[in-house]
Specification:
Chain A is mainly α. Chain A has helices at 2-14, 24-42, 50-76, 78-98, 102-108, 113-122, 130-142, 146-156, 165-173, 177-189, 196-203, 210-225. The chains are: A mainly alpha, B mainly alpha.
């Protein structure tokens, strides 16, 4: 303990906090370490090798090509999109007359993942009822595309009272860290009671990403205070 | 676009604007490369780790929480990569001194100073990788104690103590080499 206090006094000094005690030894050592830090700051900096620059830019370029290809393939589908837009309109009219679930029907008619992603994202501007939320939860179970899953989870995050054990079970089965993080964000906001036991089990998974593990620890610490 | 904050760039990246990743790379490549170089002492590994950092930034872009700052998030990714590197590689003592050769060619820099830098560099590489890492996070990346504690999975107080003890160890190694 005494050593810890001594080291803390040194760190206070390095951080510019005046040492309150008359500990001359700490004062002297802190001065020496400050000198050492300024020498470390003076060490020459290395430059990034041009081949690394080239590799990173090639990686970025490939991502752009992939994105563009996706956009072009969507353009090729234009006549189909028109067909589906008409079909969606008919489905919408059908909904008006039959009092059916509109969002679900419209979603089913979408031909590709980017359209589905955009549709789910736009639902953030809508007020969803319980039926819509249940439908989204069912979609989440079926969906395999990580970005769509994250977008659905983010959307459901706006309805924390609707998040239940299904959600927790989905987290346990989810292998992708970005989707796991989305689930954990939602669970953090959930008004539902204690799910710490399930989270402890989840945190023991050996394949967990460190960021995910830290997030679980953060939620558990919040829950323990409640 | 180059005027955008890091936070705005990450948001645009999440919305499909891939160019934002290039701007973030230009902003962070220098500091990250030097961090990797200081900790591993290996030019080739540092280049690979730099590349891997930006692959991870892209891969985990949706896990970034918009309320937080991007800088510590990126450094968190980098320090996690360093830890993975510890586990995979036992190659820790290959000391790279190529930048000292460049420094020697600069006539304004005294030979004495170059010698001091080489000595300090050598002493750094006699520390344990974890000690070298925590010192670099503190003085080079200027990460907060909070962020260092998260990265190392220790308390804030422990992070302060570890930094202090690693610096003291470095000082000790330098003193011994003077004898």
């Amino acid at each position: 303990m005494k050593n810890e206090q001594f080291d803390n006094e040194i760190m206070d000094y390095l951080d510019g906090i005046p040492i309150n005690s008359n500990n001359q030894k700490a004062f002297q050592q802190a001065g020496e370490l400050k000198q050492l830090l300024s020498e470390l700051h003076e060490l020459p900096l290395g430059k990034v090798h041009p081949t690394t620059d080239a590799k990173v830019y090639e990686f970025i370029e490939n991502l752009e090509i992939t994105m563009n290809t996706e956009s072009k393939s969507r353009l090729k589908l234009d006549p189909k999109i028109l067909y589906f837009t008409i079909a969606a309109s008919i489905a919408l009219l059908f909904y008006v007359f039959m009092d059916n679930n509109g969002f679900e029907d419209q979603y089913r008619l979408l031909p590709s993942n980017p359209e589905k992603l955009g549709f789910i994202y736009d639902l953030n501007n809508e007020q969803l009822d319980s039926e819509d939320v249940e439908w989204l939860k069912a979609e989440l179970k079926k969906e395999t595309h990580p970005n769509i899953k994250v977008t659905i989870v983010d959307l459901l995050n706006n309805y924390p009272s609707k998040i239940d054990n299904d959600f927790l079970n989905a987290l346990q089965k989810e292998p992708i860290p970005s989707v796991q993080m989305a689930f954990l964000d939602a669970l953090e906001n959930s008004v539902n009671t204690d799910f710490s036991n399930e989270l402890v089990v989840f945190s023991q998974r050996k394949d967990l990403d460190n960021t995910v593990r830290l997030k679980v620890a953060h939620i558990l610490s919040i829950q323990s205070k409640q | 676009m180059t005027d955008l904050t890091d936070e705005s760039l990450l948001k645009t990246l999440c919305n499909g604007e891939i160019k934002s990743l290039g701007i973030l790379y230009e902003r962070y490549k220098g500091i990250l490369h030097n961090y990797f170089l200081r900790v591993t002492g290996d030019q080739e590994a540092s280049n690979d780790l730099l590349m891997a950092t930006f692959e991870r930034i892209y891969k985990y872009r949706h896990s970034y929480e918009s309320r937080k700052k991007v800088r510590p998030w990126i450094f968190q990714i980098a320090s996690n990569l360093i830890k993975d590197h510890y586990k995979k590689s036992k190659r820790w003592v290959s000391i790279n001194t190529s930048h000292y050769k460049e420094e020697t060619m600069n006539t304004e820099v005294s030979m004495d100073r170059v010698a001091r830098h080489k000595k300090l560099h050598k002493a750094l590489h006699q520390l344990k990788p974890s000690q070298r890492n925590i010192i670099s996070m503190y003085y080079l990346l200027e990460m907060s104690y909070q962020d260092i504690s998260i990265s190392e999975n220790i308390s804030v107080n422990n992070a302060r103590i570890k930094i202090c003890r690693s610096l003291k160890k470095l000082k000790e190694i330098l003193k011994d080499s003077d004898l």
